[in-house]
Specification:
The complex is a heterodimer. Chain A is α+β, with helices and mostly antiparallel strands. Chain A has helices spanning 3-13, 70-80, 102-116, 124-135, 155-162, 183-205, 211-218, 222-226, 234-250; strands at residues 31-34, 37-41, 50-54, 57-60, 67-69, 147-148, 153-154, 172-174. Chain A has nine helices and eight strands. In chain A, helix 3 crosses helix 6 (183-205) and helix 4 crosses helix 9. In chain B, strands 1, 2, 3, 4, 5, 6, 7 and 8 form an eight-stranded mixed β-sheet that branches. Classes of the chains: A alpha+beta, B alpha+beta.
C-alpha cells in the first residue's frame, strides 16, 4: 500500500497503522493478502501486449474491516500450522480420514481463540467431533443443496461471513463457493461461524452459552432445546460421544 | 408367436436370476457392508463406497463396535415411512427466510422393531422439502428400497402409551431404488 493509501486508510477507517489482528496475519487490520499473480496487459504506444507480474501484497479492504482472504488462509496454514502441537487428539478410527485434518483444526481453533479470547476457550476436540457429525471427514461432500465441506458450512452462512453490512461486525472471511470446499478454508470459516453462533446462542439463553449449546445452535437444535420440544437427539448424542471419546483418548 | 413368447419369458427369467445372483454375490463378497438382500438394486460401487480403506469393515450385530460404520440394507417399500417436519423456527440470522425442517425415515421390520434413519442437522424447509419429493418419486411404485447409513445404536424405548420399541438408529446417507438414488452429500450418486 502506498503512503497515500495508508494515510487514507487510517483516516477513513480509523485503523491503527500496521496493527495486526493476530501475529500470524500477513497484513495489518483493514487489508487482505493478495498472492503473486499475472495479468494480461493491452498494447499501448509505448509497450507491446504481454503479461505483467503483480507481486504479492496487502490490499485495502473497502469495508475497512478485518477480513481473511483465501490467499491469507493458505499462507497462515502453510507457514504456521505444521509446527503446532496439542489437541485435537487422534482417534475416531471408524471414520476414514479422521486424523487427516488435525493440523488445520488445531491451527484455526488456536487462531480464533487468540482473536476472540473467550472466557471458555473453544476446545479443538469439539471441533473435530463436530466435523465427524457434520461430514464424517468426507474430503469433498460438496452438495450445494444443504451445505459445503468438512464443517458443512451453509451457502447462506458463506454470504453472512463476508457481508460487510450483515451478520458480522468484524473478522469477516471472504471465500468463493469453490474455495469453501478446501479443507483449511472450510475449517477456518466454520470455526469463525461457531464464534458468531456463541453470541447468538448466549442471547437466546440470556447467559453465556456453553460450546455444546453453541454447537446445538450451529446444527439448528437450540430453539427446540430451549422450548423443551421434541427433536432428533442423535446428532447431538453422537457429537457428545465423539467429544468424550477424544477427551479420553487425550488423557 | 409362441417362440417369441418363450424367448421373452426366458429373457425375463434370465434377468431375474442374474439380478438375484448378483445380489447373492454382493452379500457374499461384502457381508460387512450389505446386511440384507439387495433385490438387485445395489452394485459393487455402492459397496466400495462404504468399505473403510484403513479400518476395514466390521460385521453388523447392532452393537457398540459398529457405531459410526456405514452399512446398506434394503426393505419392502410398504415397511418404510418418511417424515418431513417443519419446526417453525428460523435462525436469527435467517430473518425473512425459510423456517428450519427435519426429515427422518422409519422402517418397521417386525412388530415393535424399527430402523430409524435421521439427518445430520436441521436445514431450511425448502431444501428438505425438495429432497422429500425426490424420495417420493424414487420410491413410487417400487417394491423395495435400499438405505445406506452410519450406524448409531440399538436401543429399547418405552413410548408414552407404554408400548415397548426396539430401535436401531442410523444417520441417513443414501436412498436407492431401481429408479435411481439420492444422497445426503452428493448431488449425483451412482444410479446404475
Amino acid at each position: 500500500m502506498s503512503i497515500h493509501g495508508e494515510v487514507e486508510a487510517i483516516l477513513l477507517c480509523n485503523i491503527q497503522p500496521k496493527k495486526k489482528a493476530h501475529p500470524w496475519r500477513r497484513c495489518p487490520i483493514g487489508e487482505h493478502f493478495v498472492r503473486e499473480h499475472s495479468i494480461r496487459s493491452q498494447s499501448s504506444d509505448q509497450h507491446s501486449a504481454g503479461n505483467i507480474i503483480i507481486h504479492e501484497h496487502c490490499a485495502r479492504n473497502p469495508s475497512c474491516k478485518e477480513e481473511l482472504s483465501y490467499a491469507e488462509i493458505q499462507h497462515i496454514t502453510d507457514t504456521y500450522f505444521a509446527d503446532l502441537v496439542g489437541p485435537p487428539s487422534k482417534g475416531l478410527v471408524e471414520f476414514e480420514n479422521s486424523n487427516a485434518y488435525d493440523k488445520e483444526i488445531r491451527g484455526w481453533t488456536r487462531y480464533w481463540n487468540d482473536v476472540f479470547e473467550p472466557a471458555n476457550i473453544l476446545p479443538a476436540n469439539l471441533v473435530k467431533a463436530l466435523i465427524a457429525t457434520e461430514s464424517s471427514f468426507k474430503p469433498d461432500p460438496k452438495t450445494i443443496r444443504i451445505a459445503r465441506g468438512l464443517m458443512q458450512v451453509r451457502t447462506k452462512t458463506r454470504e453472512y461471513l463476508q457481508d460487510i453490512h450483515g451478520e458480522l461486525s468484524d473478522y469477516l472471511v471472504r471465500l468463493t463457493p469453490e474455495q469453501l470446499l478446501e479443507p483449511s478454508s472450510n475449517i477456518c470459516a466454520g470455526i469463525r461461524w461457531l464464534f458468531r453462533k456463541q453470541v447468538i446462542a448466549s442471547s437466546k439463553l440470556n447467559r453465556d452459552a456453553t460450546w455444546i449449546e453453541t454447537v446445538a445452535d450451529y446444527k439448528g437444535y437450540l430453539d427446540k432445546i430451549i422450548a423443551s420440544e421434541q427433536y432428533n437427539l442423535k446428532p447431538m448424542q453422537d457429537l457428545e460421544d465423539y467429544y468424550n471419546r477424544l477427551g479420553l483418548e487425550h488423557k | 408367436m409362441y417362440i417369441w413368447r418363450c424367448a421373452c419369458v426366458a429373457l425375463m427369467l434370465g434377468a431375474f436370476i442374474c439380478g438375484y445372483a448378483m445380489g447373492i454375490e454382493l452379500i457374499k463378497e461384502y457381508p460387512n457392508v450389505l446386511i440384507s438382500q439387495d433385490y438387485g438394486i445395489l452394485n459393487e460401487n455402492d459397496m466400495i463406497l462404504y468399505t473403510h480403506k484403513m479400518a476395514g469393515t466390521v460385521p453388523f450385530h447392532g452393537g457398540k463396535k459398529e457405531h459410526g460404520y456405514f452399512y446398506w440394507q434394503c426393505f419392502p417399500r410398504d415397511h418404510v415411512s418418511v417424515t418431513l417436519e417443519d419446526t417453525g423456527n428460523s435462525p436469527e440470522e435467517m430473518v425473512g427466510s425459510d423456517t428450519m425442517a427435519d426429515m427422518s425415515i422409519t422402517v418397521n421390520v417386525a412388530p415393535g422393531v424399527f430402523h430409524e434413519y435421521t439427518m445430520r442437522a436441521l436445514a431450511p424447509a425448502d431444501l428438505y422439502e425438495a429432497m422429500f419429493h425426490n424420495w417420493r418419486s424414487l420410491m413410487k411404485n417400487e417394491k423395495n428400497i435400499c438405505l445406506g447409513g452410519q450406524f448409531g445404536e440399538h436401543v429399547h424405548r418405552i413410548r408414552s402409551n407404554g408400548l415397548k420399541q426396539e430401535v436401531y438408529t442410523w444417520t441417513f446417507d443414501e436412498l436407492k431404488t431401481k429408479k435411481g438414488c439420492d444422497s445426503y452429500f452428493y448431488e449425483k450418486c451412482d444410479a446404475s
